[in-house]
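for the recovery benchmark. tokens below, seq after
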């Protein structure tokens, strides 16, 4: 059974004061996830440009000794894994350093400190920096799955900068592993099984 990507277009009709009260149609596109049926809405004119905020001032106020992930602190004050998981307590891949989340929300919960630099503007992230961080996260996941055979569900999560709820400016990602799925993992697993069963019936 091939995967098909479906979309639906809708038009909203109104008189536009910006165009001499002309009657216009504004399009919205709805795209469907073929696995879960969830939808996303695509808008073609948001009305105002998105201008990324500059956090340089906040970076100056929070970097160095005030930041647990900066070079002065990262190897001194971040927690360590038991030596059975990794000798020395932390996974290291160039600038990426993996250590336990002090305030976990899963059975296994690591933080990957991505860069030496305290504030990396979104356009400054390099492929190497991102690849190293994700490789380090994978290294941790592989060890956890080897170490704890009850654990089945894993995820790598990244929210960056204050609007995303990131509490520390210094680039970092979270790695979670648990016996229990999140809502998203549960939906994906259930829908993947039913997709597989339907495909088996057809082929
Ligand atoms: Zn920092």
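predicted aa per position
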């Amino acid at each position: 059974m091939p995967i098909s990507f479906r979309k639906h277009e809708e038009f909203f009709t109104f008189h536009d004061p910006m165009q001499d009260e002309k009657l216009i149609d504004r399009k919205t596109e709805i795209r469907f996830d073929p696995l879960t049926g969830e939808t996303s809405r695509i808008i073609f004119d948001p009305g105002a440009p998105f201008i990324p905020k500059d956090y340089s001032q906040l970076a100056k106020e929070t970097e160095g000794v005030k930041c647990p992930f900066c070079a002065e602190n990262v190897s001194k004050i971040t927690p360590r894994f038991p030596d059975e998981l990794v000798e020395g307590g932390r996974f290291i891949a160039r600038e990426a350093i993996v250590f336990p989340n002090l305030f976990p929300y899963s059975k296994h919960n690591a933080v990957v400190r991505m860069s030496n630099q305290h504030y990396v503007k979104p356009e400054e992230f390099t492929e190497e920096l991102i690849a190293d961080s994700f490789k380090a996260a994978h290294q941790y996941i592989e060890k956890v799955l080897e170490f704890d055979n009850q654990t089945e569900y894993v995820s790598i999560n990244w929210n960056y900068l204050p609007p995303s709820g990131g509490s520390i400016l210094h680039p970092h990602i979270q790695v979670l592993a648990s016996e229990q799925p999140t809502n998203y993992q549960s939906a994906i697993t259930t829908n993947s099984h039913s997709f597989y069963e339907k495909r088996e019936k057809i082929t």
